Amino acid sequence: MAAPPYLRRWAWVHKWSSLICTVFLILIFLTGLPLIFHEEIDDWLEPPHYVELPASTPRVSFDRLVSEARRVYPGYIVTSVFADDDEPQVYVWLAPSWGQYLDKPRTRRFVRFDARTGAVLDQSQPLGARRISFIGVMLRLHMDMFAGLPGALFMGSMGLLFVIAIVSGAVLYGPFMKKLDFGTVRVERGRRLKWLDLHNLLGIVTLAWALVVGATGVMNELASPLFALWRQTDVQTVLAPWREQPTPPPVEWIGVDAVYAAASKAVPGMVLTSATFPGSPFGSSHHFLLWAKGDEPLTSRLFSPVLVDARTGAALVVHMPWYLRALELSRPLHFGDYGGLPLKIIWALLTVITIVVLGSGIYLWLKKPAGAQVKARKSGDAKEAIV
Amino acid sequence: MTRSLWMIFRWPLLIAVVSSVGLVSALLGDGVWDALSWAALGIPATGLSAWCLRPLLRRGGSLGKPNILDKIGL
What we know:
The complex is a heterodimer.
Chain A: H1 5-36, H2 38-45, H3 62-72, E1 77-83, E2 89-95, H4 98-103, E3 109-114, E4 120-123, H5 134-143, H6 148-176, H7 191-205, H8 207-221, H9 223-239, H10 256-266, E5 271-276, E6 287-293, E7 303-309, E8 315-317, H11 322-335, H12 340-366, H13 372-379, H14 382-386
Chain B: H1 5-28, H2 32-52, H3 54-57, H4 68-71
Helix pairs in contact in B: 1-2
């Protein structure tokens, strides 16, 4: 009896979706392993040194840090300020101009300050002396293979094929297991059959995790297009009254501390992290764009954008659409960084198991016995026909 | 004997539900929620996977030949 046509179609889908993406997925999972532990690795390679101060020490004024950063890089404009809520540090980012910021990202500079003493901890190295860190290389290989947006979309489509391979694999698992108990691994009938059983078993056991990590990975690759869509819709609607007006000169701006205070009033109880300065192509010509987040485990993943008028300090909270909320939630579910070190170790173990499933999949395809298709048709074993 | 869909998928379904609880719980809170997540996701990541891989530990794998793992009931 032949396998029903619908199973043949699923078998075809599983075979080709896996074959196309497997090589890239092995790269993605191998680079993903160190990325799970990026904080630990970064701290180990470059241990942070902060002077011991009481936890109640107040943060230095942003205005002071901004003018200090301007002194370090004269002639540059300040593009954004980032106040870390994990470590007592503040980054001030600069660029020769907004045009250069967009066209030549390598001209961007930063000064890193101790948030409590105002001391300069670090600053960007001059061009040529800059080295990309180990974690930086892993991240670029993982995200876009150093190919920017096209690379990200390519890796995203590989992730989509991975999701399709998981779903089709789960569909095929049913007919495959018709005559076998759960957990059966047939060891005595050759290496290929043993690995076929292991491929199916490990695949079905890690299914939920792999599906979530795959789908959220695809979502993360879409971050740039999704934010661009939001800027062109929700943000444009809010900014419509200012569209035709030029950016006010910096002397007319209220101070950065006043901007943070105004935003804080608009989103009480939330933690303000970064502020993008007026004129930014990713913000507003007339406003500072600040990001506020909650302080609970779940709400700390959800950001609210606040626009503060550079001259008047009037604050506006911009609507976050569902697709950006989905993106925000898909970050922790992809990175595995939301449950301490034990969860990271679990993430790493599941990554290794998934690499075994991918590798055994290739092995099964390479070792496909001659005439397997014919035999499979005779025996009605649809799964045999595909691998 | 041919197994029904329920018979085939009941264990995978239970594992998927437990894994999903683990995936979500650490998002909801710290402390107990994290511990629940470690327990629930730790099942497929450690114990269950080790159980799946147990045949690799058998030498030769020839049928009916007892080895150390059979003696301890694995």
